[in-house]
Amino acid sequence: xxxxxxxxxxxxxxxxxxxxxxxxxxxxxxxxxxxxxxxxxxxxxxxxxxxxxxxxxxxxxxxxxxxxxxxxxxxxxxxxxxxxxxxxxxxxxxxxxxxxxxx
Length: 103
Known about the structure:
The protein is about 70% helix and about 0% strand. The mean pLDDT is about 95. The protein has helices at about 5-25, 35-40, 45-55, 65-70, 75-85, 90-100. The chain has about 100 residues and is mainly α. Helix 3 packs across helix 4.
């Protein structure tokens, strides 16, 4: 059993979980970001933003495009061309009603 007090073990497990989530999402190009936002409150772009935030907090340098390529497994524009479809009016309405508001 893993020792939850071992920080390096925890970091390794968290990294493995992130990679598994990333790979799962990459295998599900049919799942649209707007649907993820409406159901879960986050999407691939959120993951990329969080990844970039972590890199910057650690003293690294990373652009939004670099972070998105890590999460999407390809350049963002290429992913959009391959997988993104026009959002339905219902999905757009749900997003507008539930989207995070800046305070």
